[in-house]
Automatic annotation (TrEMBL):
<feature type="domain" description="Helicase ATP-binding">
    <location>
        <begin position="275"/>
        <end position="428"/>
    </location>
</feature>
<dbReference type="InterPro" id="IPR001650">
    <property type="entry name" value="Helicase_C-like"/>
</dbReference>
<keyword id="KW-0238">DNA-binding</keyword>
<dbReference type="Pfam" id="PF17191">
    <property type="entry name" value="RecG_wedge"/>
</dbReference>
<dbReference type="Pfam" id="PF00271">
    <property type="entry name" value="Helicase_C"/>
</dbReference>
<keyword id="KW-0067">ATP-binding</keyword>
<dbReference type="InterPro" id="IPR033454">
    <property type="entry name" value="RecG_wedge"/>
</dbReference>
<keyword id="KW-0378">Hydrolase</keyword>
<keyword id="KW-0347">Helicase</keyword>
<dbReference type="InterPro" id="IPR027417">
    <property type="entry name" value="P-loop_NTPase"/>
</dbReference>
<dbReference type="GO" id="GO:0003678">
    <property type="term" value="F:DNA helicase activity"/>
</dbReference>
<dbReference type="GO" id="GO:0003677">
    <property type="term" value="F:DNA binding"/>
</dbReference>
<dbReference type="GO" id="GO:0006281">
    <property type="term" value="P:DNA repair"/>
</dbReference>
<keyword id="KW-0234">DNA repair</keyword>
<dbReference type="InterPro" id="IPR014001">
    <property type="entry name" value="Helicase_ATP-bd"/>
</dbReference>
<feature type="domain" description="Helicase C-terminal">
    <location>
        <begin position="447"/>
        <end position="611"/>
    </location>
</feature>
<keyword id="KW-0547">Nucleotide-binding</keyword>
Length: 675
């Protein structure tokens, strides 16, 4: 049996449990073993009954003197057991667990674990955990540090614990050490198999700590090694053709722009130009907040590509954005004699050719745009694409183009260096001048009517426009039918009940693209006052007259994502506003959203979210689970440094470590895209 063995082959795991485990993303033996506990109950204190104190959480071991199952008047049941260990007695009480009758029998030896209370001189435990004493097997639910897992309906921690314990006792289970011994020694790490055993069923706290250290090391180390190996693969690529950068023409181009560049834009363009003149293909990430002006930076690179007589491509995640980029870049580049074409899912032409620069959605790869000589590939909002999709764009020829990826997702530097260790980084850390702050409020439910009245008045007196964004219903980044339905219902309600005198529009991802374009055009031409939308508007949309962004179910969004949504307004002269509505916010939830009232940069907000929710939540775990670090933390600078050194040490001689190589390969297959 190996880590790859399907979970259904395990003893006592039938089709029903296989399904249930699937909900926890547990499909193989390895998945089950890597489903680590997130906390432990300390039942390690095993106390003689004569010595337990009131209020103590302990395990006790005794003989069952009696067990009764009583019915109450309301068809409830109560189970009572009395146990004794010779030094004292204790009464355990459970509610509505009649099945215990078959498990606990008079005369048996049993462990109970829980909190002891005194009722007069009588010692009692309510709803304790119980476990029969088995002289051949150590206890797993009592008398030790007891692991608690993320559960799902029908799969309890107790169930997981017993399955995992059986697995770990199985001598035929193969858990191969994949770290080279040099790394184990150098970093004083525990062995893999032992660490997996100890993280589930720790013998002691120090053993648990060691196990966590080892497994956290693995997580961060593989992340870094994967980045290094991507870097190596990239460096071995041959560039399509050598670029010349004509500094004079570039300067003219920059002078012809309708605005002076910010210092950050100038710096980023400089860094890109340096890359373009190298014989290695560029692999650079341009990171800049919403509205920081990434598009003109890209335009400068496209201009240089055209001077070098190669084609350029820009891939964007949505059709709306493709259309928008097409308009903006047309204005900038067509006067320079650059032939631009657009390719999206709804482009009638199934194949486009005869262009210098092609803008498009995923259609660029799916509909096989015909490139004669692709010299520069740009991917906007790169986190929306998978590794595979990007690879398809750049690998159409055997030789590689220069690659520029752009993102508005603020990634703190330590994280960027770890997960994007293979990319060079340019950061636009400065906004074009004259941007105003968007006034942001977290609105309490009681003020909802007042908020609607205020929006109505703003629109009527200032002729401004508003977005009302409905959340994704599921915790997912993809729009489901259910989310679309919710947005439709909200649209109808708002149009008929709240804003009958205004014209509302509806935008969601399931509209046909011609419908989308039509709605947006109406909104742009101010024929629609309020656009009700799912978060499809998040990405890149530019409507300068819109000044109000209202977000429903704000608690479902990350702060950076809310910041992106907020960035849809405040692009013109008028003061802009963002109104957030949340449901069932706890104290922490409220605090988190209130951060948006004060913080106005994506980076600031990312740091706050990172502190409050952790990287798993912020950068998404289950859906696009790149940051699915269970144990390691991006705030652990020591671990980051240690693992970076380790990765650099083994990378040059990776072929000497076949097990590590295999692990890395499997890791990269399962790995979802950074950020
Ligand atoms: P993003 O980084 O979000 O892609 P854009 O490139 O869409 O940002 O730019 C946002 C807006 O700012 C656009 O309307 C663009 O014309 C404008 N802009 C970009 N750079 C400058 C600048 N240096 N000065 C003034 N306006 C600028
Ligand atoms: Mg943009």
């Amino acid at each position: 049996m190996t880590l790859g063995t399907p979970i259904s082959r395990l003893f006592m795991v039938g089709p029903a449990y296989t399904n249930k485990l699937g909900r926890l993303n547990i499909n193989t033996v390895g998945d089950l073993l890597y489903h680590f506990p997130f906390r432990y109950l300390d039942y390690s204190l095993v106390s003689p009954l004569g010595q337990v104190q009131a209020g103590e959480t302990v395990s006790v071991k005794g003989q069952v003197l009696s067990f009764t199952n009583q019915y109450t008047r309301r068809r409830q049941t109560i189970q009572k057991a009395v146990i004794s260990d010779g030094t004292g007695q204790l009464q355990a009480t459970w509610f509505n667990q009649p099945f215990l009758k078959t498990a606990i029998k008079t005369g048996q030896s049993i462990f109970l674990a829980g909190k002891v209370e005194f009722f007069g001189s009588q010692k009692i435990m309510t709803n304790p955990d119980h476990e029969l004493v088995d002289q051949f097997k150590p206890a797993i639910h009592t008398g030790r540090l007891v692991p608690i897992y993320h559960e799902t309906t029908g799969v309890s921690s107790k169930w997981l614990r017993s399955r995992i314990a059986v697995l770990l006792r199985n001598q035929n289970l193969l858990v191969e050490e994949f770290l080279p011994s040099i790394l184990i020694e150098k970093n004083s790490l525990a062995e893999l198999r032992e660490s997996i055993e100890q993280i589930h069923l720790p013998n002691s706290l120090p053993k648990l700590t060691q196990a966590k250290q080892r497994l956290a090391f693995d997580e961060m180390f593989l992340l870094q090694l994967a980045a290094l190996s991507r870097q190596k693969a990239w460096q071995q690529k041959k560039l399509v053709c050598h670029f010349q950068v004509d500094a004079q023409k570039l300067a003219q181009f920059i002078k012809s722009l309708p605005f002076p560049l910010t210092a950050a834009q100038t710096r980023a363009i400089g860094e890109i130009m340096t890359d373009l003149q190298k014989d290695q293909p560029m692999n650079r990430l341009l990171e800049g907040d919403v509205g920081s002006g990434k598009t003109v930076v890209a335009a400068a690179a496209i201009f240089i590509a055209s001077l070098n007589k190669v084609q350029a491509a820009l891939m964007v995640p949505t059709e709306v954005l493709a259309n928008q980029h097409f308009l903006t870049l047309n204005q900038l580049l067509t006067p320079l004699g650059i032939k631009i074409k657009l390719l999206t899912g709804s482009t009638h032409q199934k194949q486009v050719d005869d262009f210098d620069f092609l803008i498009g959605t995923h259609a660029l790869i799916h509909q096989r745009a015909v490139f004669k000589k692709l010299g520069l590939a740009i991917v906007d909002e790169q986190h929306r694409f998978g590794v595979g999709q990007r690879a398809q764009l750049i690998n159409q020829n055997r030789q590689a183009p220069h690659l520029l990826t752009m993102t508005a997702t603020p990634i703190p530097r330590t994280i960027a260096l770890t997960v994007h260790g293979d990319l060079d980084l340019s950061v636009l850390d400065e906004m074009p001048p004259g941007r105003q702050k968007i006034k942001t409020w977290l609105v309490p439910a009681a003020k909802r009517r007042a908020a609607y009245a205020w929006i109505r008045q703003e629109i009527q007196t200032h002729r401004s426009q508003a977005f009302i964004v409905c959340p994704f219903i599921e915790e997912s980044t993809h729009e489901s039918l259910q989310s679309v339905r919710a947005a439709k219902n909200e649209f109808t309600r708002l149009q008929t009940k709240i804003f009958p005198q205004l014209k509302l529009g509806l935008l969601h991802g399931r509209l046909k693209s011609t419908e989308k374009v039509a709605v947006l055009k109406q909104f742009q031409q101010q024929k629609i006052a309020i656009l009700v939308a799912t978060p499809v508007v998040e990405v890149g949309l530019d409507i300068p007259n819109a000044t109000i962004m209202m977000v429903e179910g704000a608690q479902r969004f990350g702060l950076a994502q809310l910041h992106q949504l907020r960035g849809r307004v405040g692009r013109g002269e008028k003061q802009a506003y963002c109104l957030l509505f949340g449901e069932n916010l706890g104290h922490q939830g409220r605090q988190r959203l209130q951060a948006l009232q004060q913080a106005h940069t994506g980076m600031e907000l990312a740091e706050i979210d990172l502190q409050m929710r952790g990287p798993g939540q912020v950068y998404g775990t289950s859906q696009h689970g790149f940051f699915a670090l269970q144990l390691a933390s991006f705030t652990d600078h020591r671990l980051i440094k240690q693992t970076r050194q380790a990765a650099a040490l083994v990378m040059p001689s990776l072929s000497r470590y076949p097990r590590l190589q295999a692990k890395l390969k499997e890791y990269k297959i399962n790995q979802v895209e950074p950020n």
